[in-house]
Design goal:
Layout (H helix, E strand, L loop, with lengths): L13 H22 L7 E3 L2 H8 L6 H14 L4 E3 L8 H5 L3 H6 L1 H5 L27 E3 L6 E3 L1 H11 L13 H19 L12 H19 L1 H8 L6 H6 L2 E2 L5 E2 L11 H4 L2 E2 L5 H13 L5 H8 L3 E2 L3 H10 L2 H7 L13 H4 L7 E6 L3 E4 L5 E11 L5 E6 L4 H14 L5 E4 L7 H10 L2 H9 L3 E4 L9 H18 L6 H16 L18 H6 L24 H29 L19 E4 L9 E10 L5 E8 L4 E5 L3 E3 L9
Parallel strand pairs: 1-2, 7-8, 9-13, 13-14
Antiparallel strand pairs: 3-4, 5-6, 9-11, 10-11, 11-12, 15-16, 15-19, 16-17, 17-18
Length: about 675
């Protein structure tokens, strides 16, 4: 059985309408009890204000008191219980439902799901409700609709319950917005208490915003400094914070900090600032607003601005924590990800393999030569270097076309050997030369040709030339030698080609091991020893040994075989020296910082460093981490705003969000 009723023509507040619904429920209950004999009766309401009225012993207004008395008489003072709004079947009548929804409604036919299990009944206490309609005596001015409330209203809302129980400060990210919303909420509450007043649609006044700020300050103090408030109200020994800051209460009950500048020609708020906790969300929003209003000033500038009105213990740490999270500041002054310690040398750098098994390839910048007609043209030096023996092979090419590179590669493989792995640079710069080199090394035609020949192509991360430092160093040595030899000479292509070939010889004769000053020591090991068994720029000779036959007749098969064996033993001797002298010397240069704690993660938003000004750097999001064998990340895959996926070293990335591990 159910019963509904239209709202009266005279406007009533929502709590009063809820009370009228409770009266109807009480009358219906009395009618049913007269027809059906039962002892178990349970009364439910989804209005906490009505439940408070029915349970309180305080004096209520006449309208409310009369209906509360009627409810008690009709229900024999039975206890009313709380029903959540979503589980209230009566809402189907007041709000209306379609016929199809009515037929399928389990809530209307059987009631809430927890109705038959009294252990699951909702629980409600009087202290859980925030009564805003009957805690204050309202005085109306007949000439105006301005509401004047007693001081008990503010004390009830803020002192006992607090504005933080009505609004969640953690849902706001802007201090000014928090104050505006709070002011509108208080304006709405005032309007609910005075139905005769017309709606106030004007902009918020300064007084309303200041009042909202005072409410939040009082709420923060009551939650955080309740021990200090009790200590200040008592006559016992003062707590350390009360003594140190000389805390006092003003006329409105807000705690202020004292000090020794009472006689200074300053504003009263500056001499006696409001006390705020350092780790409260309201304080965080306040610091963010001060930091932004000061045009993202530093720590000192923000602190100076805040201390004109507020006193925050440990303010420097609080301000520093907020500034470190400021995205705009991190875009301009943020630091990049720190690089971990250098990894162990890759296996292809220390593996005893035939020369040029693993080869690095790179180009120098443009070199200018003179044509036969006296005009100028560009040429480039293509460098091939072995990862293990450090031998080099230089080829001079006319341009950066695929045909020129493939011709140079064919000459290289014909004179040296076909590499198993060829590694090249993957850098991109804003000059046309580097773009042509990148397009050349990543050409599908070239990669298809290399793959058909059994050569695997690999690339280092973009804008990370130090990943290919073992050939970049030789590129620099080649360019330096050309500049020293040529100076300002304007030579032809053939002359430059001869010079490049001589430079290749000198580079292959450079020492790889320590050069001793003792004449009895062995000669330093060079790449040429590992290639040919001797230095290239010296006359052919053979080392005389007691167990080696020197007079070998090369006119027959036996003599040729013996000579090949001698050459093989010589190469094997240099290989042994390479393992014992060169490889062990590689450990001499290493650096260890011990700081390998990494915070980079997939999904981080970063600034991508390039040659443009910092405010023009592109944004990207990390999609994958490229982790080495030691478990550390030195490069990542990221996606830019246009959807392009590329690779970058982490030292070229600047995070825009505060990393959780960096928080104090």
């Amino acid at each position: 059985m159910s019963k509904t009723r239209f709202a009266p023509l005279k406007e009533l507040t929502l709590p009063k309408l809820e009370l009228m619904a409770a009266v109807i429920a009480a009358r219906l209950t009395n009618h049913i009890l007269q027809s059906i004999a039962t002892e178990s009766v349970h009364l439910w309401s989804d209005s906490q204000i009505v439940l408070y009225w029915l349970d309180t012993s305080k004096q209520l207004k006449r309208f409310v008191q009369n209906r509360v008395c009627e409810i008690h008489e009709l229900t024999d003072n039975r206890k009313w219980k709380y029903c959540p709004t979503n589980d209230n079947p009566a809402d189907l009548l007041t709000r209306g439902v379609t016929s199809l929804e009515y037929l399928k409604s389990i809530l209307w036919m059987k009631g809430p799901s927890w109705l038959h299990d009294h252990y699951r009944w909702p629980k409600w206490e009087i202290t859980d409700s925030t009564v805003l309609t009957t805690t204050a005596e309202l005085q109306y001015d007949n000439n105006s609709c301005n509401i004047q409330t007693c001081s008990s209203l503010e004390n009830t809302i803020v002192g006992l319950n607090g504005i933080h129980n009505i609004m969640d400060v953690n849902r706001f990210s802007n201090y000014r917005k928090l104050l505006r919303v709070t002011a509108y909420v208080m304006r709405f509450i005032d309007k609910c208490r005075s139905p005769r007043c017309s709606a106030n649609l004007e902009l918020l006044t300064v007084h309303e915003l200041q009042h909202a700020e005072i409410m939040w300050i009082r709420s923060c103090q009551s939650v955080t400094f309740h021990n200090e408030i009790d200590n200040m109200d008592s006559k016992g020994t003062r707590l350390p914070l009360v003594r140190q800051l000389r805390l006092l209460k003003d006329d409105t009950g807000i705690i202020r900090s004292g000090g020794r500048i009472h006689n200074a020609p300053l504003d009263m708020l500056t001499k006696f600032p409001y006390l705020l906790p350092a780790k409260h969300p309201f304080t965080r929003l306040l610091i963010q607003d001060a930091h932004g209003s000061q045009l993202h000033a530093g720590i000192s500038g923000t602190i100076t601005h805040l201390r004109q009105k507020f006193w925050i213990p440990a303010i420097r740490q609080a301000v520093n924590c907020v500034i470190r999270k400021c995205v705009k500041c991190r875009k301009v002054t943020g630091k990049q990800y720190t690089a971990p310690d250098p990894p162990p040398l890759p296996k292809n750098r220390v593996e005893d393999t035939p020369p040029f098994t693993v080869t690095g390839v790179d180009f120098t910048g443009a070199l200018y030569v003179r044509k036969y007609d006296g005009s100028e043209s560009k040429t480039y030096v293509c460098l091939f270097t072995c990862a293990s023996t450090r031998a080099v092979h230089l080829e001079l090419v006319h341009d950066l076309s695929e045909e020129s590179f493939m011709a140079a590669f064919r000459r290289f493989t014909s004179r040296k050997s076909l590499p198993r792995i060829m590694i090249s640079d993957n850098a991109t710069t804003f000059n046309a030369t580097a773009r042509n080199i990148r397009e050349l090394t990543q050409s599908r035609t070239i990669r298809r040709t290399l793959n058909n020949g059994g050569t695997e192509s690999r690339f280092i991360p973009k804008r990370a030339p130090w990943f290919g430092g073992w050939w970049e160093r030789l590129i620099g040595f080649t360019k330096t030698t050309i500049k020293k030899v040529l100076g300002r000479s304007f030579v032809t292509f053939e002359t430059l080609q001869t010079l490049v070939t001589e430079i290749e010889t000198i580079m292959n004769d450079r020492p790889l091991t320590y050069v001793s000053s003792d004449c009895t020591d062995l000669q330093p090991l060079t790449p040429a020893h590992l290639l040919y068994g001797r230095r290239v720029n010296s006359l052919p000779y053979q080392e005389i040994a007691e167990n080696v036959e020197t007079d070998i007749n090369l006119g027959n098969y036996t003599g040729i075989a013996k000579r090949a064996k001698v050459q093989a033993n010589l190469i094997r001797h240099f290989r042994d020296r390479w393992r014992h002298e060169y490889l062990t010397s590689l450990r001499e240069h290493h650096r260890k910082t011990g700081n390998n704690k990494q915070t980079i993660e997939v999904g981080d938003v970063v600034h991508i460093q390039d040659d443009a000004p910092r405010n023009q750097w592109k944004l990207g999001i990390i999609t994958d981490l490229i982790t080495g064998n030691d478990g550390l990340t030195r490069a990542v895959m990221l996606r830019t705003k246009n959807g392009h996926v590329t690779s970058r070293p982490i030292v070229k990335l600047y995070p825009l969000e505060l990393i959780s591990h960096d928080e104090p």
